[in-house]
């Protein structure tokens, strides 16, 4: 088969590659140099002649130039040695694009492309060619594979992926400082020709910036570019293929470059001399003026620190920077006085806080200015000689007593007269007044130190003839001095507890006194009983000479049932000048002391105190207990009234077996019988009813019997007969409870002929023995001591 292409018949660049493979081996025959099987035609066409051999596969490789035309273009020609030109050979084409993109003439073997080819979409096509006998359809040649490769042409311009770009570079940068790198891409084949070889150039932005033609790096091209002169630049970069040659395609992009700020400008005051007027009434610590130095830089590079560099101004004024406005705020450190100094000169310096050492060659980054302050005269209020006054006066002094004086003066040069008055806005009684012209303070009422030891008043001063609003205040504190005008009193108003077991000479309680006067007149107290009263037989008073006194019992065994309360008058003297005395009466309550006698408190009060319960709480607790008991009693009564009879049916009891599994009450069951009947057989008939069943409404209106002695004579009764009688009554009683009941009777007899041996009820003579030693045995034998002690009559005071 011969495959031929004619380069002169079409605008395609033709490359022919012949590959023969046999038994897994292949060899490549170049198409440019004719071999023994090739013929170079006169018109430039190359023919490949080959005689087919069985088992061989023929591959032909066609490379076509990229074509974008609308008409079908000639690609090449297939020719077989078996083709005699009589039309008996039919050529067929199969593979990628066969029949759609590539078509073949079956008779001549000419191949045409019907569509435009784009290398960027598909770089090559694999096709298969075969020659068949038109009559028999037998293959005259084995199927041969060939590849049509689309060769690139420069049909794509360079493109920048993004844009426009934004970049920045510090001002005052050196020449060649890198700003940004831009990169363009070309879709053409970079391995074939110069279609994808890109060269960069700058179209706009010179002479400030330049671009590297190979790398696309943008650099500064001018030194000392100043942001304050120009801040923004627009640079246009072009990318051109074909190595920048004529006819190459190009694309461009825009880069917006901004110069960032550096501290290359020092602060500068707009003028070197300033003037400021400040009234002398300006408040300390408040701003009185502003000053500002300009800095063309931005951000922290423009921050300025202000300071007053001369001592005259620094002693009276201070300056600080406002972070928002970058102004210097001038404030007052000390009060101004027009009469003392009328002008001040301030040397103010402004310095950058962030200095870049790279630009130190530009000079010092600071500036100075002079500020002249003129103090304005203001009509000032009077000034007191002291910031506050402390005075004193004795209590009970008559009205009009002089307390002290305040003085004020006019600080102005006129030295006007000053008048004084009290601030009447203060609440309370006006105890003082002030002389309008002299400033002397007087009392208006007698003062009582015990009622109010200190008084705080406010004195106001103003110039005579000036408007009322121009005045000043000063606080005045008046201390009321003490005089001995209050008698002493006993310190306690509570009752004194006296134990019933108190002995003569025993200290009942130690008392002290109080005095409303101050410490100097009330630190020493003396105690005594009133001299006009008779001697108290129950208690005596002892002065301990340490401002305390002891109450001592004069007799033994007080009894609260005989007399519960005693009164003891006490006279107290203080140590003041002159000495004052007062009489107080103490109430002494007799109570049985608690065990061990440690707490002198009545038993009832001790119980309430130890329990920590109020009377209302105790009443509530008792009420709850009563309600619970009533509920229990009601429940038991209803349960007993609902007992069913033992025999269910009176007619037939043979089949009815009733089982009770109740236990007897035992020794604690005291309701099953009445022990009184056993101990007093004579009253057995009267107490015949049982207490363990509901009573039948019996009422006893007679007086109860009182047994005062076991020696009462009883009727002769046979105990054996009495017990037998009770047994018969119990067996015949149909109203007994439905459980076994054991009734036990015990009786010791009717008495003894010798009488009782108990000494309690036997009359006896009073023993002459002294039982006073029982008082020393402690509270356990207190009752025994009272029974056997010597009876003494209680004397009431």
From TrEMBL:
Keyword Transmembrane helix: yes
TM region(s), chain numbering: 617-638
Membrane disposition: Single-pass type I membrane protein
GO molecular function term, any single one: calcium ion binding
GO CC field: adherens junction; catenin complex
GO biological process, alphabetically ordered: adherens junction organization; calcium-dependent cell-cell adhesion via plasma membrane cell adhesion molecules; cell migration; cell morphogenesis; cell-cell adhesion mediated by cadherin; cell-cell junction assembly; homophilic cell adhesion via plasma membrane adhesion molecules; morphogenesis of an epithelium
Region (Disordered) residue spans: 746-772
Cell compartments where the protein resides: Cell junction, Adherens junction; Cell membrane
Domain annotation Cadherin: ranges: 80-160, 161-269, 270-384, 385-490, 490-607
InterPro entries: Cadherin, Cadherin-like_dom, Cadherin-like_sf, Cadherin_CS, Cadherin_Y-type_LIR, Catenin-bd_sf
Segment forming the signal sequence: 1-24
Keyword field: Calcium, Cell adhesion, Cell junction, Cell membrane, Glycoprotein, Membrane, Metal-binding, Repeat, Signal, Transmembrane, Transmembrane helix
A Pfam family that the UniProt record links to this protein: Cadherin
Record's keyword annotation contains Chaperone: no
Gene3D superfamilies found in the cross-reference section: Cadherins, TCF3-CBD (Catenin binding domain)
PANTHER family referenced in this protein's UniProt entry, alphabetically: CADHERIN-18, CADHERIN-23
Function: Cadherins are calcium-dependent cell adhesion proteins.
Name of the protein: Cadherin 18
Lineage: Eukaryota, Metazoa, Chordata, Craniata, Vertebrata
Gene behind the chain: CDH18
